[in-house]
Amino acid sequence: MNARAFSITVRRSMLALGVSSVALGAPALAQEAATAPLVDAGEIVVTARKTNERLQDVPISVSALSGDQLRENGAVDVKDVLRNVPGLSFSNVERGLGNYNIRGVSTVASSPTVGIYLDDISLVTVATGFSGAFDPIFFDMERLEVLKGPQGTLYGGSAMGGAIKYVSARPDTALLSGSAAAGFAATAHGAPSYNVEGILNLPLVTDTLAMRTGFLYRREGGYIDNAPGTVRNSNYSSTPSPDYTPLVQDALSSRTVSNHNKADSFVGRLSFQWEPDATWSIRPALFYQRYEQKNPSQFFLGDREELTSSFRLPQSTVDKAGIYSLDVGKSLGNVDFASLTAYFDRTLNWERDYSFFIGGLVPPLYSFTSPNLSRSRTTQFSQELRLSSGGPGDRFKWVAGLYYSHQDDNLYQIASTPGATPIIGTEVGYVGDTTTKAKQYAAFGEATFSITDRLDVTAGVRLFQIKQVVDILGDGPFNGGLTLVEGRKSNEKGVNPKVGISYKATPENMIFASAAKGFRPGGPNRFQVNPVLCAADLDRLGLTAAPDSFDSDNLWSYELGTKNQFADGRVTLNGALFFTDWKKIQQQLNLINCGFSFTGNAGSAEVKGAEIEGRVNVAGGFQIGGNATYTSAKITDAAVGTAVQDDDQVLAVPKWMASAFASYGFDVGADWRAQVRAEYQYQSSARRMFDRVQAVTFSDAEGGLVPNLAEFRESYDVVNASISADNGATVLRLYVNNLLDAQPWLDVNLGAGNDAATTLRPRTIGVEVRQKF
Hints:
- With 773 residues, the chain is mainly beta.
- The protein has one domain (3-772): Maltoporin, Chain A (Beta Barrel).
- A hairpin with a 3-residue loop joins strand 20 and strand 21.
- The longest helix has 15 residues, at 3-17.
- It is globular.
């Protein structure tokens, strides 16, 4: 049986049982009837190693949540479930601007450490202060997989810490089906939210050709008000040296808008499945997503008690992406062939109020209004070809392939101040246009040999070459005049090896160990930093000029893990120990006073940690479970020319993460099944910046340094609860997220002329109904 046929058989057998492909090791669990048979682990299928495998058989740490679980959790995107996934964390709450990290491999730099994939299509973009990871909205997803540890063999250099895989639902050529859903939610201190969606699976030629299509619209109500008031600027003191009192000024804003950070999302999907015969699978697909947030979710710091800002201008974020693909599979007897051709096109328009930032750089301009527009555009063509062993029971399993991609990233930015010509000689304070062209070539392979029925060994390797060319144009007084860089190039070749071994004491108890190398290419810096304008910041780092480029970084990661099920599957217990040796870490270094940044190599680090997750079906539909992760990620050899010190925590890595849940399912009448669920999530504090101090100008024009209040993000915890009822065709769900209305300061920004922070969405109570046919 080929891999595609095996997957279809599994899905249909699960439909017959009335269950979904649930990750038993995952912390959030699907509803299970007390009298129904327990889900056999052989029916839990993931594609973490680009072949269909039982989750409990994969000899690496993988967390997976099914589409049903995502819906039950009311998850909109991956940030809504990451606190339930051991070892996965992030920085920046805004969709489309975030940075993800897995097991302490975290960075705030242009090249991410976690790969983002939709149906094996890479969605990695260059990260800047104006764009970040693309976040697909959970819509018609079959499951989410989180792969931990370097995945460079099968997924490439962008997955040196791990990978997040979105797997969309495939058209079914046999069954006419569909669903419709609508929901409404009320947020404390905010505006209501609502959503509507529809999905249709239509066989056009039974067992040969099918179409699957759907749409989603979601309004996320705002909870930040904008009103006239004051603004605090911690870069200045209202008192003379050495007494430090952060400067507070009238924001000079006349905008009064309630709940101004509302957001609208639209998602459309269309795919076809054509199976001319049992050996062919051809799937063209289109995914389109448009996300618009009217204003950012920042609130001003100071004496305010409410979530309020005082910006002078509206500040929209519009993130549009289209993903077009053709996935072809062919069974050649004992070998399966796969071809994946894809085109990814993303545009992110980012409008911001720079009045306070520019007014901080040039105080006479404080009373002027300064709009900023940044436009990021990514286009990528990719082609992957694979051959793999075709029999799931083969003693020797292997996959080998070739990969090519051509990606263009462009950032255009213009900041202007109407009326500023008499003061700075122009209204355009800064204009920049940076284009990065990158080509990747790779050959990869991975093989597993079963020495005995219980003992497997795995080895893999990826050979790659990455070529980059950067063109930079910058102009304006805040750039120090015209700078032009043409054809700044880099060319890197490398090898990513991996080895592993696994042993099954019983069919449901496995231990495994692996060693893998992760790699991330270096390259040219994408900003030309003026050494005169930024002299004070550079001097603080011991530099006279910012480097033109940064080196590649690499790591070796080692893992010892175990996966276990006991008591006929009623108890699941998985755990792992991991150690990572990371060299020449790439980090973004912010020059706060002049507004520029560059990527540098911040030295070496060691990451040590452990994670455990489990679930117990206690009795009669009652389940408990949870997970905990400990991560010690510390700099071991700080580099000169950075603010990093030995023993500093790596950025954005909480030392402790934990979650726990309890659920109880019970019958309501003859046809309905209800489930009550509560969960608790915790994250400890995490370092946000390496700088221990920030530069300050006192009222007597003296310069000085004060403690950096944005050095750490505080710890926080969240409580969620829900109750649902399901009769097989209709699902009703009532939920409350952030039950205790926790409002931690997550992303504190003290370097842009207006002290601000973000927080979690306040307490939200909602209801959703879903009808299936």
